[in-house]
Amino acid sequence: MAAIQFFSEDISFTLAKPRRTSNWIKRIAQKEKREVRDVSYIFCSDVYLLELNQQYLNHNTLTDIITFDYSEGAKQLEGEIYISIDRVKENAEKFKVSFQDELDRVMIHGVLHLIGYKDKKPADKALMRKKEEASLSLRK
């Protein structure tokens, strides 16, 4: 059974529409011929995510998202997606989009990583952005 769970760590944050968001994420996974098995979103602060970035990835930079992929099969998605609410708020202002739109973009970005999309090379980044935009257009 597909399980998408939402938690907060070191901050107080509650997702506005968890059921709608879960259903949307499952639809995106299905479009990619994947099944969500167990995905946890952990909403946190810049400080918390920076510590994870330093500890596990040896990066000393702020980021909006870190995805840990625990998927064992190619078809089933399992993992933890950590999202800095501080970074999402700042980026929403920077890119002149709503907080919810930026949060949805970051949330689906994590799922796209679990599916196997990369974003280090320019061509990969362009494909990732295209997939994000297509996913955002499917929200209900």
What does this structure look like?
- With 140 residues, this protein is α/β, with parallel strands linked by helices.
- The protein has a single domain, classed as 3-Layer(aba) Sandwich (Collagenase (Catalytic Domain)), CATH 3.40.390.30.
- The protein is built from 5 helices and 4 strands; from the N terminus they run E-H-E-H-E-E-H-H-H.
- A 4-stranded mixed sheet has the order 1-2-4-3, with helices on both faces.
- Strand 1, helix 1 (18-31) and strand 2 form a beta-alpha-beta unit.
- Helix 3 crosses helix 4 (99-115) and helix 4 (99-115) crosses helix 5.
- The longest helix has 17 residues, at 99-115.
- The model has no long low-confidence stretch (mean pLDDT 95).
Give the structure's gist in a few sentences.
The chain is α/β, with parallel strands linked by helices and 140 residues long. It has helices at residues 18-31, 46-57, 85-95, 99-115, 122-136; strands spanning 3-8, 35-44, 65-69, 76-84. It has one domain (3-136): 3-Layer(aba) Sandwich (Collagenase (Catalytic Domain)).
Per DSSP, the total helix count is 5
- Order of secondary-structure elements: EHEHEEHHH
- Structure class: alpha/beta
Task: Name the CATH architecture.
Answer: 3-Layer(aba) Sandwich
Strand order of the largest sheet: 1-2-4-3
CATH superfamily descriptor = Metalloproteases ("zincins"), catalytic domain
CA-CA gap between termini: 22 Å
Number of domains: 1
Determine the strand fraction and express it as a percent band: 15-25%
CATH topology: Collagenase (Catalytic Domain)
* Highest-level CATH class: Alpha Beta
* Rounded Rg: 14 Å
